[in-house]
Automatic annotation (TrEMBL):
Family to which this protein belongs: Belongs to the CobT family.
Keywords noted in UniProt: Cobalamin biosynthesis, Glycosyltransferase, Transferase
InterPro entries: Nict_dMeBzImd_PRibTrfase, Nict_dMeBzImd_PRibTrfase_bact, Nict_dMeBzImd_PRibTrfase_N, Nict_dMeBzImd_PRibTrfase_sf
EC number(s) stated in the UniProt entry for this protein: 2.4.2.21
Residues annotated as the enzyme's active site: 315
Superkingdom of origin: Bacteria
Record-given protein name: Nicotinate-nucleotide--dimethylbenzimidazole phosphoribosyltransferase
Function: Catalyzes the synthesis of alpha-ribazole-5'-phosphate from nicotinate mononucleotide (NAMN) and 5,6-dimethylbenzimidazole (DMB).
Amino acid sequence: MTLSATTSEPSSAPVTPDPALDDAIRAVIDGKTKPLGALGRIETLAARLARLQGTTAPRMERCTLTIFAADHGIAAEGVSAFPQEVTVQMALNFLAGGAAANVFARTLGVQLRVVDAGMAEPVDHPALVQRRMGPGTANSAVAPAMSPETLAEALASGRALGADGDADACAFGEMGIANTSAATLVIHKLSGLPIATLTGRGTGLDDAGLSAKRAVLERAAARTGALPPEAALAEYGGFEIAMMAGAMIGAAQARRAVIVDGFIATAAAMAAQAIAPGCEAAFVFAHRSDEAGHAAALEHLGARPLLDLNLRLGEGTGALLAWPLLRAAAAMMTDMASFESAGVAGKT
């Protein structure tokens, strides 16, 4: 299934504290026919979804997946095991319905769309959403990846895409050869975590390739000092990472659950949170990736992901696999009997 794209402005404010609502949510959860806390983190997830939607009866019926595709100039430094042309080839695979993300989305009834955020080669396809920022970023090892003006446009395009439609939850994925390098640099600049901790094998580098990649990223990082969030994205981000960050902000402002996928998506989430504090109230971290550095990034954010399946594909695949847990958590709030309604005696 595919989504068309329209543009709209975020329609509501971020989540603000509401102690009365929190008490009501807790009372509903504790009143269900189960021992207190027996559903563990599902109860925590249910409470977060209820708080996000401002109700004790949250709805999780529709989820969308938006995959942002873009290329990276830093690929010229040999930081990926795959050639750059794979980006557009995989975008065509998404459009043809043949990728893992397509299979999972179809299985789970999730609508999917693909956005050209800036691939090296333009693609003419009726289902491709065109938001091209250019033919890939500049090589961030030697120069800023994009201008501040281009970054602002990418963030704005993402916000509109995140606010678009009427889904209850939004998952975001990506495709872009060398984007683990961009994500590593963005996370490093936003968090201060060491390049050595964050650098992983990406699409499958061997030991020599990993060592060379780390050296390239160390050199790229040394090009600038401490940076504010938007400058970090402009200097080192990819078009798809910047647009995804904007989409996360737009979806959060529309009070939609944002299901954060793996390492690349976490870089976008870290940037979104830094640019628009408070949007993280909508974030549900789907899984802990096998990509080196993801665990450190999650720990820095204080995020506890729902799943740990040794995934490292991207595309939003981990976010899709977490979607049924959001549906179950919301259904627990609305469909599960209370002690009173079921006539079951509570704890004495």
